[in-house]
Design a protein that fits this description.
2 copies of one chain form a homodimer. By secondary structure, chain A is of the alpha+beta class. Chain A contains 5 helices and 6 strands. The structure holds manganese (II) ion (2 copies) and zinc ion (ZN) (2 copies). Chain A binds a DNA duplex (30 and 30 nucleotides) through helix 2 and helix 4.
Chain lengths: 142, 142
DNA sequence: TTGGTTTTGATAGTCATTTTCAATAAAACA
DNA sequence: TGTTTTATTGAAAATGACTATCAAAACCAA
């Protein structure tokens, strides 16, 4: 599946006339090796420790490309930092966010997704994406 | 209901040992006179036009207090500005956000709220609040 | 290899928000 | 009431995440 993701990006780059660069390859490898919801700064630190000559701006730029290519999703929680997570084709999930330890639990709920579509239809609204975040205390912290 | 909200803040201030100040009274009056989802800067401009000697930092600080007191809710959309809306006791709603004209439609859905509670229970999670935002094109923009 | 074009890294800039701190005002006290 | 204590304020500086700039480097089609 890592190969599949690399192909997604290669295809995207091709279709956009983007060049293949050492930096993008390395950043993609490292991003794919991570789990959970990583901030740009966190990813930059990983990248820097593997390849110190890659700059922060490049990490910002490249993560945006990954999101555009459809292999990453931007997550904005309430900590002032943009995070990215992997996108698995055809899957969607939402988040339970612990406000104490910042841990995140992912969940999927078909019924909620359906109800969202109904609501949007009722308002003549065309959904592009959505975000459902439940904040509170996780099992460990409550 | 404006009086009720003022009382909410008075009680909160009392319980927190906060002092009653001219600035807080004025900012509360002006906030209560607004509708929709107002940004701090927008509210600050209103405040300044009524009372030019009130500073921006005070507006920031005071809106946070309103949120803490439970009479305002912070809204973070994707435009880089924090917005606040009125909280009506016992009511909750979520948002359809048009990514083209930035208009917001509010909606309520009991079933979604119930499902959220079930999901949280299933994960031993204690909900403090939640946020459901549906992004897309509104009826006018699609 | 070359030459036009994209990408990069360092750095400066932006912008919303927060912090600092001395002056001021509110409550507590005498 | 005046006095003391303490919170609050406004202006300005600081912060911090992100973006723009731009000259140098890398890419790649020919
Ligand atoms: Mn996730
Ligand atoms: Mn609303
Ligand atoms: Zn927790
Ligand atoms: Zn619209």
């Amino acid at each position: 599946m890592i190969l599949a993701k690399k192909k997604i990006f290669t295809d995207f780059a091709l279709s956009k006339g983007l060049r293949s660069t050492r930096q993008r390859d390395i950043i993609l490898d490292i991003f794919l090796s991570t789990h959970q919801h990583i901030s740009v700064e966190e990813l930059y630190l990983k990248v820097k420790s593997s390849t110190p000559d890659i700059g922060q701006a490049t990490v910002y730029r490249t993560l945006k490309l990954f999101a555009e290519a459809g292999l990453a999703r931007e997550i904005l929680l309430h900590d002032g930092q943009t995070r990215y997570e992997h996108v698995v084709a055809g899957e969607h999930h939402d988040h339970l966010v612990c406000t104490k330890c910042n841990s995140i639990v992912e969940f999927e709920n078909e019924t909620i997704e359906m109800l969202q579509n109904e609501i949007a239809d009722r308002h003549g609204f065309q959904i592009r994406n959505h975000k459902l975040e439940i904040y509170g205390l996780c099992a460990n912290c409550r």
